[in-house]
């Protein structure tokens, strides 16, 4: 497929000849990630990495728009992103360099209002590009300016709030055990983002059983939240058509058409799921979709087209945006050390992903997590949680004592919620906070002494 | 319910009932429930127990199988193209290829065209290999021998991934290849072993044509039972001349006809 010839613009003529394409500049400019090394596209040296960042800094946004990393004709994700651009706003921005965009985002005069004004003119490639120029503190600072709210039964993302997904997974899909983990989580004040279960068995029967049990618990105790069973989207759709009570419809996304094919989805199917969700979800909405993503998924499915994992991650958000989701989170440390090697790479990727999601206008959260074969531990994800609470992420995933015995990995603990609220003077989503107060679990902006006692829900 | 200062001053009898209920709940689930808290943080015991389990899991990943065990089991040692533990984690592609000198060694020390070529590899848990393979391997070898299946010369591969069995099986022209390999540890057990097997092993063979018996450890599928189960499964693979998704389709047809 012919691609328009690209003029690489930089004031440094010595680097002009060193890069052949926008894809190569983007890949080389990425912070170190084992996944890019595995794909054979990472910078050979730190000097080369910085040279690519310099080229990128001088690149105009128009160059990125006109050189999508996978051609328009070949990839429906590219088409969704390109067709979604609001042209008059893009026209205002197209002469900006990537460095201009970075300096705009970190400018003290720039807030959510100013960022909201340029959002519709940005493509995922532009957002990926600016991310590559930003330091970790740049990412935290710029993310903290953005306030993206979304509403299902509750509203998440409001200023001064920090929400949590309660993840009560069980290795045998034992619903009674799930309900026990829900009781305990609610007693710690988590669960306002969603009570979301990953089933072991991807079947309509299991999905229905989980949706019914969580829905019943939420109803019985009048909990202001939403339920979700994270089976494949087609399984959830079948369950809902048979009357299963789902507040949200979930799917994992990739940043290329081929990657989504590996996940068994395409844009037509997602359109159908969105349509069904708006008609059949038991929640009030309007935001009724939930997506998970994570750097490296495309390479792992051999669907990366030679593009770096950060840029492909940005494209997941470009696709997600189409469906006005209530929640989107990266599952940042789950994929393994061949994509994100250690705590440093996981923390960097987590900051990048939440920033990119929010800059796309998504209600963005994170599963700050790690597996046991990666060079990271609970301290690393607690560090990441502190950074992202400071950045104002909308929510975190929490599991009992940080240990998910079904997915065999570790994430944030129920306990981390209270510590983060205390540190940053934050609160759960307002309706949920009021409910916690009614249950005697929240008082004067803090968890009460009764917090953590699941017998409250006996 | 109000958050007044008397909220905790409940009847001690109720407390006991609550404690029993909580223990029952915690006992029936593998999840870490009812751990309590210190301020917003976990109590010290729960925190250290968690760190201990993670430490065991990491030790299983980052330590290697003892050479003396490999000698005791009479396995020929081979190496992949991986240089060290760090590279093993970052480059799964190198763990699927044998080092040049190991290919030479394979042909020098192992008999060609076995019915079932047995491969043992540390994978992501050396602990799994050390605890389960000494029990499992004799059951597997003896069981196959009783059925007149040639097991050739079993080998041990350092820093191996599952697909390294394709290379070994192809080089030796084995009818079938089985690899006993350590699984990625969870916090509950670091000792879980898996056995993958394939009919007609060849480089680049699709994953879907492989079969697996997983969760082999003392509190899952015990190693001796796993060995016996594998003998039956491998004999069936040789008889059907298929594994993985191909075998399942055959089985389905068989069930429909009967």
UniProtKB/TrEMBL annotation, chain B:
Reactions it catalyzes: ethanolamine = acetaldehyde + NH4(+)
GO cellular component, one term: ethanolamine ammonia-lyase complex
Residues that coordinate or bind adenosylcob(III)alamin: 162, 183
Composition-biased stretches (Basic and acidic residues): 13-35
Stored Gene3D superfamilies: Ethanolamine ammonia-lyase light chain (EutC) (3.40.50.11240), Ethanolamine ammonia-lyase light chain (EutC), N-terminal domain (1.10.30.40)
GO biological process: amino acid metabolic process; ethanolamine catabolic process
Keywords associated with the record: Bacterial microcompartment, Cobalamin, Cobalt, Lyase
Compositionally skewed regions (Polar residues) per UniProt: 1-11
EC number: 4.3.1.7
Location of the region described as Disordered in the Swiss-Prot/TrEMBL record: 1-42
Family matches, as InterPro entries: EutC, EutC_C, EutC_N
Cofactor: adenosylcob(III)alamin
Biochemical pathway: Amine and polyamine degradation; ethanolamine degradation
Cofactor binding description: Binds between the large and small subunits.
Gene Ontology terms, MF aspect: cobalamin binding; ethanolamine ammonia-lyase activity
Subunit field text: The basic unit is a heterodimer which dimerizes to form tetramers. The heterotetramers trimerize; 6 large subunits form a core ring with 6 small subunits projecting outwards.
Role according to the record: May catalyze the deamination of various vicinal amino-alcohols to oxo compounds.Would allow this organism to utilize ethanolamine as the sole source of nitrogen and carbon in the presence of external vitamin B12.
Family as reported in the entry's similarity comment: Belongs to the EutC family.
Protein name listed in UniProt: Putative ethanolamine ammonia-lyase small subunit
Naturally occurring in which organism (per UniProt): Natrialba chahannaoensis JCM 10990
């Amino acid at each position: 497929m012919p691609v328009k010839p690209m003029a690489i613009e930089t004031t440094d003529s010595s680097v002009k000849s060193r890069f052949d394409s926008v894809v190569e500049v983007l890949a080389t400019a990425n912070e170190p990630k084992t996944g890019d090394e595995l794909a054979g596209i990472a910078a050979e040296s730190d000097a080369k990495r910085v040279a690519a960042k310099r080229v990128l800094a001088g690149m105009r946004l128009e160059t990125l728009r006109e050189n999508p990393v996978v051609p328009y004709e070949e990839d429906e994700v590219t088409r969704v992103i390109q067709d979604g651009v609001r042209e008059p706003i893009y026209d205002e921005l197209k002469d900006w360099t990537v460095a201009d965009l970075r300096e705009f985002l970190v400018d003290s005069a720039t807030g959510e209002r100013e960022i909201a004004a340029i959002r519709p003119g940005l493509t995922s490639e532009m957002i990926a590009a600016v991310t590559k120029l930003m330091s970790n503190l740049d990412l935290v600072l710029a993310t903290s300016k953005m306030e993206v709210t979304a509403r299902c039964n509750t509203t998440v993302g409001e200023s001064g709030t920090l929400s949590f997904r309660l993840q009560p997974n069980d290795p045998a899909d034992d619903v009674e055990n799930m309900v026990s983990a829900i009781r305990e989580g609610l007693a710690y004040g988590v669960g306002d983002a969603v009570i979301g279960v990953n089933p072991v068995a991807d079947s309509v029967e299991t999905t229905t059983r989980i949706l019914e049990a969580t829905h019943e618990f939420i109803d019985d105790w009048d909990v202001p939240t939403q339920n979700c069973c994270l089976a494949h989207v087609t399984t959830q759709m079948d369950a809902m058509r048979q009357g299963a009570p789902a507040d949200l419809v979930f799917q994992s996304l990739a940043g290329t058409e081929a990657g989504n094919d590996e996940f068994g989805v395409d844009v037509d199917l997602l359109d159908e799921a969105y349509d069904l969700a708006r008609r059949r979800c038991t929640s009030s909405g309007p935001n009724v979709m939930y997506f998970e993503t994570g750097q490296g998924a495309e390479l792992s499915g051999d669907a990366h087209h030679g593009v770096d994992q950060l840029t492909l991650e940005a494209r997941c958000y470009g696709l997600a945006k189409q469906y006005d989701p209530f929640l989107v989170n990266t599952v940042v440390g789950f994929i393994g050390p061949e994509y994100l090697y250690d705590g440093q790479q996981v923390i960097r990727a987590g900051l990048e992903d939440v920033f990119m999601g929010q800059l796309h206008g998504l209600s963005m959260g994170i599963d700050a997590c790690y597996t046991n074969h990666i060079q990271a531990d609970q301290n690393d994800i607690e560090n990441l949680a502190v950074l992202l609470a400071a950045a104002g992420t909308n929510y975190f995933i929490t599991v009992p004592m940080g240990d998910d015995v079904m997915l065999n990995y570790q994430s944030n603990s129920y306990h981390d919620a209270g510590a983060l609220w205390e540190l940053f003077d934050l609160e759960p989503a307002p309706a949920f906070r009021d409910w916690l107060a009614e249950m005697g679990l929240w008082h004067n902006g803090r968890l009460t002494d009764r917090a953590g006692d699941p017998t409250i829900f006996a | 319910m109000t958050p007044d200062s008397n909220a905790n001053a409940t009847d001690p009898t109720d407390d006991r009932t609550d404690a029993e209920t909580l223990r029952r709940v915690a006992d029936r689930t593998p999840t870490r429930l009812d751990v309590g808290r210190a301020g917003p943080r976990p109590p010290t015991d729960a925190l250290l127990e968690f760190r201990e389990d993670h430490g065991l899991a990491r030790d299983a990943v980052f330590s290697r199988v003892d050479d003396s065990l490999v000698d005791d089991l009479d396995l020929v040692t081979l190496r992949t193209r991986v240089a060290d533990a760090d590279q093993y984690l970052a480059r799964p592609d190198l763990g699927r290829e044998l080092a040049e000198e190991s290919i030479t060694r394979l042909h020098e020390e192992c008999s060609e065209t076995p019915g079932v070529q047995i491969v043992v590899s540390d994978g992501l848990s050396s602990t799994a290999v050390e605890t389960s393979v000494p029990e499992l391997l004799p059951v597997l070898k003896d069981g196959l021998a009783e059925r007149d299946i040639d097991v050739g010369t079993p080998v041990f591969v350092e820093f191996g991934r599952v697909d390294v069995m394709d290379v070994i099986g192809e080089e030796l022209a084995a009818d079938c290849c089985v690899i006993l390999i350590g699984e990625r540890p969870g916090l509950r057990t670091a000792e879980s072993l898996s056995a993958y097997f394939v009919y007609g092993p060849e480089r680049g063979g699709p994953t879907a044509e492989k079969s697996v018996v997983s969760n082999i450890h003392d509190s899952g599928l015990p190693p001796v039972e796993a060995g016996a189960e594998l003998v039956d499964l491998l004999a069936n693979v040789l008889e059907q001349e298929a594994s993985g998704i191909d075998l399942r389709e055959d089985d389905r047809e068989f069930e429909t006809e009967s």
